[in-house]
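Hi V.,

Quick status before I head out on leave. The structure for the redesign project is tokenized and pasted below; the design run finished overnight.
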């Protein structure tokens, strides 16, 4: 079943199919950008500065329900080359690539009517393998856990994400990091990525500060049991094997990288649990669980 966004196109006409096939088969004029065309176009409210066809695509068989953000970990030329999906044994791809130039550009590498190989081995909620369920955006940054994202780049990302989220009716909790869906395997787009700023612009989830404060008071002396904490994480969306404390630590690190980037240590402390409880209340209507006899670790500011 094709995603709802493109269902009407396929049912009413073959025009979009022809466009998508042409996009893959027609080479782009060289412009010093890895073969990208420079014909500027606007898709709804998003300015697309160039096209770099990606070969690592598949027919989309599931509705688009998630938006996954990544960092490239390489500079623009190398990222653009890799993401064309032509490397034997490493056929990765992406829908959009956002540069880190003074005036950031957005390159489309695959039409949204296709899925691309950007998520790899991944899980989120009941989704096992996010490629079919998601749109992927790569952001040029050598390491988003060390390097802040420039304001101009974030503004460009926000406009692009607003467009994608609106057209595909993507829930805030399904705007996610690669590290959220590949716990312990990936760390991008990193702890420096400004998720709170995106949420304020209508892209993604963020807890209410007042509710975090109330939950912090609730868990000041003791926090929920380990079993309850695992359930809280899985309720929000994190999927991980819970048969060891090591796996829980990795899941907590992924959660902190998204919602408490200033301190990512995998420690189940009062602040982390308060944020998690506030998120589950806001987006799922689930009341914070009662504290257990487990002593809450001290939070080092």
């Amino acid at each position: 079943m094709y995603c709802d966004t493109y269902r009407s196109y396929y049912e009413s006409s073959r025009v979009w199919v022809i466009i998508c096939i042409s996009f893959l088969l027609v080479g782009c004029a060289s412009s010093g950008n890895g073969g990208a065309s420079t014909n500027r176009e606007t898709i709804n409210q998003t300015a697309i500065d160039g096209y770099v066809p990606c070969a690592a695509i598949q027919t989309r068989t599931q509705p688009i329900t998630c938006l996954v953000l990544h960092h490239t970990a390489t500079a623009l030329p190398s990222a653009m080359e890799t993401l064309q999906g032509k490397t034997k044994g490493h056929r990765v791809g992406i829908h959009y690539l956002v540069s880190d130039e003074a005036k950031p550009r957005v390159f489309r590498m695959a039409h949204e009517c296709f899925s691309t190989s950007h998520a790899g081995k991944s899980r989120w909620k009941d989704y096992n393998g996010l490629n079919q369920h998601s749109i992927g955006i790569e952001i040029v940054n050598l390491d988003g856990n060390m390097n802040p994202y420039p304001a101009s780049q974030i503004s460009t990302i926000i406009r692009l994400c607003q467009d994608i989220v609106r057209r595909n009716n993507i829930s805030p909790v399904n705007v996610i990091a690669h590290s959220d869906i590949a716990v312990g395997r990936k760390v991008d787009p990193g702890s420096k990525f400004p998720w709170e700023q995106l949420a304020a612009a209508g892209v993604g989830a963020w807890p209410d500060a007042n509710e975090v404060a109330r939950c912090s008071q609730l868990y000041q002396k003791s926090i929920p049991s380990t079993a309850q904490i695992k359930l809280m994480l899985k309720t929000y969306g994190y999927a991980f094997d819970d048969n060891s404390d090591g796996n829980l630590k990795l899941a907590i690190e992924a959660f902190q990288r998204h919602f408490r980037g200033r301190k990512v240590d995998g420690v189940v402390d009062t602040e982390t649990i308060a944020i998690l409880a506030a998120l589950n209340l806001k987006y799922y209507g689930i009341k914070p669980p009662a504290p257990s006899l487990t002593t809450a670790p001290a939070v080092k500011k």
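Above is the designed sequence. The longest strand covers residues 66-71.

G. will cover questions while I'm gone.

Best,
W.
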